[in-house]
Amino acid sequence: MSLVIGAFTMGLILALLSLGMLISFRMIRFTDITVDGSITLGASISAVLIVQGWSPWLAALASLVAGSAAGAVTGLLHARFKIQEILSGILVMTALYSINLRVMGRSNIPLLDVETVSTGAERILGGLGAGALRVNLAGWHVPAGDLAVFGSSAVICLLIGMVLYRFLLTHYGTALRAAGGNPQMVRAQGVNNQTMVVVSLAMANGLVALSGSLLAQYQGFADVQMGIGMMVWGLASIIIGEALVGRAGIGLTITGVILGTILFRLLIAIALRWGLNPNDLKLVTAFFVFAALVAPGWFRSLGRKISGGLRHA
Q1: Dihedral over alpha carbons 220, 222, 225, 228 (to 10 degrees)
Q2: Helix (H, G, I), strand (E, B), or coil: what is residue 109?
Q3: Per-residue pLDDT tens for 100-123?
């Protein structure tokens, strides 16, 4: 059961990464590679601030602001200086590697015996007498600490998802989505679609950096290499989520992305539990992305063949 709780917790934390990529990749259709650097930026800033005695919530907020600034720079490089989308992200991601090293002062910062965003929930469980004990959950005994981290991550993810949902239904949020779907129509309505790109990338990378902050607090360290491959992870989660719920509406899309991230993390956790070499994790991740990309097409083709065969029968 601890494996499942851990997979769900990691999935909920990385769901913020996937929601950020949903904004950039799906809504404004911007291939943003800044993600691999901004998630590490969030982790490094949180780690440094928490070690210095800051509140983990303030550290997470600072990470969100820093990630938003990184995303805005990517957007400005593209909108203002007419640099290609991919190249803009590569430039900022490359710069962030050195910035993250400067922020941390070294390649790795451990977070041992420090307060995290789940410390409050752990204290509540401790006050109920479940402190360093195991909680009986549907017949399974789960460590109270793991349950507190899971609950905190679930609440944060739920709140972020609800706020994002409400924002995307506003006039500004509708214009933002339209800027990606039909830029010419948006310009005809008097909306600057380039400004929308900058704002969208700032929002997206802010969520990614917040995910990095929570990830560092959950894992107990921040490392300069922790962002490698995270863009692929988020893309796979989005594709899996779309396969689960489709694109029927904003609410279902956001829910699907969260569920897709949890499912993807659960598949990885099961593979590791079955003896997968951790060195092969990126290879397996790439395989899952490939399968998620081609499987829907295969199923549609198979369905057409079956329905065609039934009509001719």
Answers
A1: 70
A2: strand
A3: 999 999 999 999 889 999 988 888
Q: How far apart, in whole angstroms, are the C-alpha atoms of residue 91 and residue 64?
A: 20
The alpha helices in 80-192, defined as continuous H runs, are: 85-104, 119-127, 144-168, 171-181, 183-188
Locate 130 and state its tokens: 């479940």
**Secondary structure (3-state) at 143:** strand
Q: What is the pLDDT of residues 150-159, one digit of tens each?
A: 999 999 999 9
For residues 155 and 204, what is the distance between their CA atoms, to the nearest angstrom?
A: 20
CB distance 153 to 9 below 8 Å: yes
C-beta atoms surrounding 147 within 10 Å: 21
Q: What domains does the chain contain, in order, with CATH numbers?
A: 2-274 (1.10.3470)
The tokens 């991919």 sit on which residue? 86
> Residue 215: what residue type?
L
31: which 2 tokens? Answer: 């291939």
Separation of alpha carbons 44 and 76, rounded Å: 24
Residue closest to 245 by CA, chosen among 272, 222, 263, 265: 263
Position of tokens 């988020």? 234
| pLDDT one-digit tens code per residue, 210-259 | 999 999 999 999 999 999 889 988 988 998 888 888 777 899 999 999 99
